[in-house]
Amino acid sequence: MVAEVADGWNHNRGPDEYERKREILAGHCRDRGRDPDSVRISVENTCVIYESEAELRDFAARWWPHYNEKQLTKFLANCWTGRAEDIAAEIRFFTERGASLVICWFQDLCDAGGEDSQARRFMREVVPLV
Fold first, then answer.
1. How far apart are CA 60 and CA 8, in angstroms?
2. DSSP 8-state class, residue 51
3. Domain carrying residue 118
4. Domains in the chain: how many in total?
5. What is the pTM of this model?
């Protein structure tokens, strides 16, 4: 359906799945005589910036007060997490392969305007590296 009528395609899974699905989309586009580059690609993910395990634990305790280790590990495995450099590298993976829009979800929405919020940290620490 994307190849036929959509202006864009949004991806919200990991890099391996992105490569596979992007190739499928390109094939469908070619089958319909459409240039695959005419489909705007966006990627989205939850983003958690932290410099140390201690900082992550403090963040988790504040924003997910009833988390357990197993739940946290499973959740973070599918997110853009870690130091600013790590997150920038993950985002570059997608932008270097055609994504033109990046959507980040931050878990600390109550602090979105504060200097230490994840959104502000993202703008200050990650964006210059992408």
1. 34
2. S
3. 2-129
4. 1
5. 0.86
Q: How far apart are CA 40 and CA 33, in angstroms?
A: 16
The pLDDT profile of the chain, 130 residues, written as one tens digit per residue, is: 788 888 999 999 888 899 999 999 999 999 999 999 999 999 999 999 999 999 999 988 988 888 888 988 888 888 999 999 999 999 999 999 999 999 999 988 777 677 889 999 999 999 999 9
CATH of the domain at 122: 3.20.20.30
How far CA 97 is from CA of 66, 72, 91, 119, in Å, comes to 38, 29, 10, 24
Contact status, residue 8 vs residue 41, Cβ threshold 8 Å: yes
Residue 119: C-alpha distances to residues 10, 93, 98, 108, 115 (Å): 21, 20, 24, 8, 9
